[in-house]
UniProtKB/TrEMBL annotation:
InterPro entries: Homeodomain-like_sf (IPR009057), HTH-type_TetR-like_transc_reg (IPR050109), HTH_TetR (IPR001647), MftR_C (IPR041347). Residues 34-94 form the HTH tetR-type domain. Residues 57-76 bind DNA. Residues 1-35 are annotated as: Disordered. One of its GO terms (molecular function) is transcription cis-regulatory region binding. It comes from Nocardia terrae. It comes from the Bacteria. It holds the Pfam family TetR_C_14. This is TetR family transcriptional regulator. Keywords: DNA-binding, Transcription, Transcription regulation.
Length: 211
């Protein structure tokens, strides 16, 4: 596994991508907050690329974003959360919950994945690729990734339970959630990250994981 310095050296020359949008519309205040949040993430990832994740401090991110450290903490509780925040989740959840009832759970996940990625700009897709690489190459983030897997399991279990009318704690629901989130996490990398890769994982699970 490469360290974060290697990752930084490889992509330091790339133009910093714009983070994924987390809200649409809203009043002037909300739009201003969203711009500030996006600027924080953009500048943070630029610094991660240029000098490494570990070497980057909250104070440096705040200075680059032209805000105070106290303002930074109003948007993110830590530097770790700047890297871990998954802006795709709200879109995928909304899309999944709007899928026709006749679709199977896996088919609904597959369709919501395609729809969510289709809504992203090329810059947003590139940002997500770089975020995936950061999470997979920085040892300091391994604990956070493990916690994210647990959070993902809970989120999927809740979504599946609502769609099927079952409890999130049901044995089958928990196993389904763990299998889905674990399978996607084990086969997602920066080089191929995108809807095609995720759909391939879902189709493999849907086919019964034939070997």
């Amino acid at each position: 596994m490469r360290d974060n310095r290697s990752m930084s050296a490889e992509i330091a020359s790339e133009t910093p991508p714009a983070p994924v949008k987390t809200a649409a519309g809203g009043g002037l205040r909300e739009r201003k907050k969203e711009r500030t949040r996006r600027t924080i993430r953009m500048e943070a990832f630029r610094l991660f690329r240029e000098q490494g994740y570990t070497e980057t401090t909250v104070e440096q991110i705040a200075a680059a974003a032209d805000i105070s450290p106290s303002t930074f903490f109003r948007y993110f509780p830590s530097k770790e959360q700047v890297a871990m925040a998954d802006d795709l989740d709200p879109f995928m959840i909304a899309s999944f919950e709007s899928q026709p009832a006749e679709l199977s759970v896996l088919a609904a996940f597959k369709k919501s994945t395609v729809e969510s990625f289709a809504a992203l700009s090329p810059e947003d897709r590139e940002f997500e690729k770089q975020r995936v690489e950061l999470l997979s190459t920085v040892p300091e983030l391994r604990g956070a990734v493990a916690r994210e897997l647990e959070r993902s399991n809970e989120m999927i279990a809740e979504l599946v339970a609502r769609r099927t009318g079952r409890s999130p704690g049901d044995f089958e629901v928990r196993i389904f959630a763990g299998a889905l989130s674990g399978a996607m996490l084990s086969f997602i990398d920066r080089e191929t990250f995108g809807p095609d890769q995720i759909v391939r994982v879902l189709e493999f699970l849907e086919a019964g994981m034939p070997l």
